[in-house]
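DM between two lab members

TW: hey, do you still have the laccase entry open?
JB: yeah, one sec
JB: this one, 675 aa:
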Amino acid sequence: MLLERGLRGLCILAVASQVCAHIKPENILWGKAGPPVAVGRQQNGPPEANPEDTVESTPEPPPESSSEVAPEADIKPDEEPAQEPAEEPTEEPVEKPAEEPIAEGEQDPDPTFESEATPTERAGPSCTNGPGTRGCWSPGFSIDTDFDAEWPTTGVTVTYDLELTGGTCDPDGSGPQPCQVFNGQYPGPLIEANWGDYIQVNVKNSLTDNGTALHFHGMRMLNNCPTDGVPGITECPLAPGDTKTYTFQATQFGSTWYHSHWSIQYGDGTFGPLVINGPASADYDVDLGAYTISDLYYGSAYEVGIQSHDNLQIDKPPPFPDNIIINGTNKNKEGKGEYNQVRIEKGKKYRLRIINGSTDNSIRVSLDGHTLQVITSDLIPIVPYYTDWVLTAPGQRYDVIIEANQTVDNYWFRADAAFDCYCLNKGPGGRSIFIYDGASGEDPKTSASKIPNWGCNEESPLVPWVPNVVEGGEEQFTSQAVNLQFDLTREGVSTNGENVVLWGVNMSAINVDWSKPTLEYIQEGNLDFPPELNVVAVPAPDTWTYWIIQETPGTEVPIPHPIHLHGHDFYVLGRGKGVFDIKESPKTLTYDNPTRRDTAILPGGGWLVLAFPADNPGAWIMHCHIAYHVSDGLAVQFIEGIEQMPLGDEQWQQQCDNWRTYALTAPYPKLDSGV
Ligand SMILES: *[C@@H]1O[C@H](CO)[C@@H](O)[C@H](O)[C@H]1NC(C)=O
Ligand SMILES: *[C@@H]1O[C@H](CO)[C@@H](O)[C@H](O)[C@H]1NC(C)=O
Ligand SMILES: *[C@@H]1O[C@H](CO)[C@@H](O)[C@H](O)[C@H]1NC(C)=O
Ligand SMILES: *[C@@H]1O[C@H](CO)[C@@H](O)[C@H](O)[C@H]1NC(C)=O
Ligand SMILES: *[C@@H]1O[C@H](CO)[C@@H](O)[C@H](O)[C@H]1NC(C)=O
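TW: and the structure you got?
JB:
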């Protein structure tokens, strides 16, 4: 029996072609930028902060939010939200392959800062962060700071203890669901720090028969790969009873989340918001804080994981979620459960940090009657723009400012599965209520604004506030690309004998070994990686690398994939429908201040071109953030700067020893790729 189940785990490799029959392979092309060039405006290494000197403290609490209000007892439980977007679409969500690339950042954004402080003032020592001066931060640091190169060192360490336990949760009144959560909370507790602080998280695995490992999504972890929290790559999982302290400096600021990267665990609630306070590219009065949106499956995520493996074998998508949970709560189909309520005051501007913690679905969010001013994409401040709906894919985050300038009333906040991203939800849709001071608090009667009809495409334009230029530009990209001796439409792995590799996921789904992480191979000087680790080496540090990710044409179900990279942000040079044309497509790419983020959508049946500087030694995974897809192996890891790579210390080694001991008698086999 055990053997059979074990084999089933190994089956991932065979399943890979099934994954691809359904998802179709992503061919990942990796090309080293020609001659080694200094990377962008990069300066290597964090400042010599001495953690010994740090003091423990917690950051200033965010402005008071008045949303913790129990719903009124007389709320009609089954009054349907005003409008069901699922019924609304008139266009078929069919991908029409087009040769045209999708315009990215073409629209010229309004460069004016909607703030009282000028750039000069923002740089000055007297400019402090406040409602009219959100661009300011601390002396010498502002929204204009190039945070790749510099960041404050506050000397502060904020410390959090997270204990993972198993049990049940009931986020939508449907009865107890199995869950694995930190400190008994779904989602887990907020981790909050200020820009430049050290964050120390003590994780204890109090599950009796599952491992865990904690990843801080989007955190650069500069020269700190052993803290990246990816089992089988950067560490062994934490065995039951074991503890690990993750310590890193918040060199970036903004809204993100932490989640277990072990198996399919985060689907059972093993995640929470992570907010790093810093400057912003537009002004607001009140920070409402993190607003996590996640999909809920009744039953255990491990069972849903098995179901989705089985579905892949017969060319079916993973199961659809039963509900969408906003900030930990929602009503279910029967009207049980509670809506999250947010109190706002007419005339004020609110910052809301939308964090998509879902496992499978892309979500569209909006607030009836209100325009959203978008100020970040992932951890990158952008030139603000206005929109009615924001589309988030799993792993993506957008911070928005909402101006409470409508009639005093109650308004639906909506988070709906994006039908045109092949996402469905069996529940009523994600709903919460924004209540103006003086309004009744009843269920709103408002209706949704029209859903945009541009399909499952990423938000645009997403123009980074601090401009960047991708080194080498088209010339370098093209000179690499024309060297490639293969047809991108052909599946397979090939090299040009120099420094370019084409890699097809269907050849080899990743399947890591929890008991032998990649960093241990490197520690031992053993670079003989088994093929199923999907290792791609980046030979020269401090050069730009370019990746073309191609979904094989002719895919029956052209699902878009949110591609997420660890250890870096990437620059999104372009994307398009159909096949990347090695002659024509490079001309369409943006090299001058392209969108920058850590999770980007690969269009269904199309291509995505990313670039990033190899400036962070480590073993980093790049994967699809649909939890079931990475579980099925849709990932690659790349190894960067072997000579300079930081490796595990004694505690790290002890954790591996503990895991290996536990694994000898672990009650459950490994059923997925484990990341
Ligand atoms: C989200 O939930 C937390 C915990 O209940 C609460 O403290 C916070 O105010 C809520 N956020 C918003 C924006 O409602
Ligand atoms: C984790 O525990 C759940 C039960 O809570 C079990 O179904 C699953 O198989 C376990 N997975 C592993 C890999 O231990
Ligand atoms: C956002 O939430 C929706 C709803 O749960 C989910 O389907 C989608 O995958 C999430 N996106 C992210 C980035 O988590
Ligand atoms: C409310 O604010 C938005 C910007 O957030 C603006 O576009 C809209 O015109 C304003 N509406 C009113 C009624 O002032
Ligand atoms: C895809 O997988 C199938 C089955 O393993 C294999 O025959 C085929 O060669 C693979 N194609 C590529 C490009 O790897």
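TW: got it. Confidence is low (pLDDT under 50) at residues 1-111, 483-507. The two ends are 24 Å apart (CA to CA).
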